[in-house]
């Protein structure tokens, strides 16, 4: 922030500067696209019409709702393509200006009907300067530009309430109201957003109060927007989500372009205080100071006066407003004070009526039914602001208002926050209330001036709540850390507001605004009083005038007119003219509330996206989404780690100050550091001020500032060599007696960002700050680190209270974006935790004299609580080697010799959590000016560092490559006539659970280059003796109505399909088991023989594995790929069978029996390399024919006669056998391991020897299987077996011509799984290649 900035840029009423403006452009061909362009970048949007049109005309349904809704909105969300890019390479050459005037950002996107509109700010004026560099503009005009249609480009938005302009000037020459054919769908929204009640800023986050955003004005974080006050949240959310997917460099460029705008509703105005009227004089500059009021109206329960009353089930109340008073002085001081107003938080309604003050109040829910929502409302307030003091201004004489007061009182009494606990009075509760009947108190002769008497009811809370105060630090190092520059001055938080007043009347308008004016003045007076300053009367007059304007603005929003009683607020007295104005305002309110508020409410709901069927616009960026995923995968290429050192120390000062001038180097610069200079120094103090009843409700920053200077002096003396860095105070925080100061080396400031502070009270049930915690978090490079210093409950036996204090702090302390302590990679707790040693005084002192640290530590309360998991779970503490640090006689090493005789204890501790932290030392220092000894620890922290340049380079490479791959299919697509938007965005699924519809480029059945496959798994049978198969009686048409079950359980010994799996795992196969069973079991007609083998009739080389045409099987061109394994239904040695592992056959010089675990395969004969045969299902034992005992001695014996007839059979592996009781195990290269003959006789009948299959038989059998089916073992016709010998002979001699098919012969029905030694079998598998 630059104080020397020209004052001309701070004038109010002028339009925003040119660097905050942009231009809106349009391109009509080939697709309509709209761009928001700055000199360096452009945000381009293009609507995707195909999907939305398909949804609209009924050809495509959408997922969100299957039934149509009666509204003007589509059921499906409108989709748009978006691109953010630099304006290089004539990116916008085909665009033309859509409007001649500049725009000042966009409020977002909204869909109405089938049209999508972009809302842009076309008129704005500056109304406030919070401090130099932080300005606020008021929206005075917006326009909605349609992304998908040109029908509304020339439609003039007309304000029917504007009676000052001539109709001809509005409609143009010769154009009357009746001649306008099209009314803009966004006309009402346009009037609402342009009525002067909306404000925005492109310099800072206007949705958060000053305390909840970074102290430096240059910081601006879109991610930290408070959606409670962000009125364009619904419209801007798609663009914010798109921004979050961008890379850091592009995200920063988008933020710098000021295209995205955050809008609040309420009031904002500054008064430029001349130096003569300024309460704080600055001798350095002649710049003026600024007094500003910002009111933020919540959008959670937004609405007009009689349409939004009371509370909802989420704890949101109507007309909830946060009002912040800020003051900036050129002397480097920033003050802020916030208070809130809101409707009575119970469920109630009030109908509009034509008689003033006669509208009946109706309670819609009982007190007990209201309590959950009531508790949530105040829990949210306590989370955001701290303690809450309710100021209820309702009348005690009006029946309706008294009923609300009774319910309000009941809710407060039963709210957990109102219970002080610990025997304290209600003054120490987090929730207090003051009932102040405004009308009764101001009836006297003094009139509204009597309202100042409320000060005595609330002054104690006002002192305890304090205020926010930040000062410019006197540290201003340059890059070398040695000199000062006014342009690099930083703000350091001195004090934080720790509570809030919640004021209400019936409407929270007139009475509320007057009382809030008084509270604001009390806070400013307290701020000036602490600095021994005072303000002239002109200052207070301007302060009152600003609050009167604030009341008028909020009243117009909620009730339609300005506030009543504003004459007194503005001038301090009530005049006759003011009374007449109040009567006129009351009459106008009746008109608006009865005749205009319903339409206004509908428009508000449309703006906030709350109408039935309204869906937000979906933005799709095909390239950025891909780049983000690739960068995540390649993060190791641009990420590295670095080790830094952190010094952490804690010291309970016992409220003493005489140690400020002592040498602190034994503590701050211990010998363990050696030559190491830590990058971060975190110092925690407790009892920095004496904790007396006057101090525990207020925080005085003076003492903290003295200790900060003492620490700085010590560090400067220690690190004074030329090669040392100077330390600068990064941030400090204070909670009454607890204080935390973070110093960092000047050379590492560029690595530190997102510095935030927070406090949490635990004293007196959270009301007082004598106990509690102060926390500061920061990001060092890409590693979030959190420091917490705490002072927990005292007392020897109060370890349960200490555990509760820890839990309260750990759960309740929150930073920005609702980030907690646990949301950090590294967390360090340090402070006076007050855990004691559970031994008697004499025993403990004796162990101390013996220096028996181990015995003392065994009885340490903190150690025992951590072991039991009752406190500081997942935190670590190294071995303690120093003596207890509490309690000493002042100035000596003797433990407490007073009458209280405190037992020595390690009350001062340092704990850590985080895998990247390594503790190097842990010790105490011999400083004797307090009754505690200071404790310190040195950590080595491994931080993650991202090389932004390399990351950006990789990102750009991925981006450019992806852009080439997709052919430029982005929002700025120039040759888009050849592409459909759905190729990039995709259709919606017509029903939940189904894949989206396909397009020319995207096919759901070929995802990732793989064909679709069934993932259905048969259910497991209850009895292991059964197995589950597809029901053979199920009809072939899956959509036919049937009572048949899909699956049936059959005994394993009787299953006709027990020899093969019921579900194939191969993507090449399709086995229709139910059809096979149905065709073989139920049909008795003989099948016709297939025609004779003819290679020319085989299918083309697509879709089927080719069978070699060469007569010899040993000279194939190349092997086809081996078939995928088939799942087995049996088990081997008691374990479920899995996909068989391929084992190549072992070639031997002489024929030898092959392992019985594999079968003959054509592939193994065709391949030049030895390939393993595919696994083949075993035949069920109950289907095998009886055999002689001799034939059962080996499962792989081949008769000599068979070898002589076909020598190739001697080297073929035998077919496997399947036993129903015990499966055989085969080891390649070894004989089969068989069960004993007795087991065979008991479990299965003897089986004949298996016969190998020749290539010819497999080839001919392959013809027998229909296309797409799988041949099975044994599924061969007897007549075809009889012809196997002659066919095999013909194949081995020459390539046969296409023979004539044999004449059909009638055969008897045979068992399909029967076996025969004389004939050839069908091939064990037949595969399909994916086309």
UniProtKB/TrEMBL annotation:
SUPFAM superfamilies: DNase I-like. It is found in: Cytoplasm. Residues 1296-1305 have a biased composition (Pro residues). Its EC number is 3.1.3.36. GO terms for cellular component: cytoplasm; membrane. GO terms for molecular function: phosphatidylinositol-3,5-bisphosphate 5-phosphatase activity; phosphatidylinositol-4,5-bisphosphate 5-phosphatase activity. Keywords: Cytoplasm, Hydrolase, Protein transport, Transport. Its main location: cytoplasm. Residues 1015-1067, 1083-1308 are annotated as: Disordered. PANTHER family: INOSITOL 5-PHOSPHATASE, PHOSPHOINOSITIDE 5-PHOSPHATASE. In the central section; belongs to the inositol 1,4,5-trisphosphate 5-phosphatase family. This is phosphoinositide 5-phosphatase. It comes from Cercophora newfieldiana.
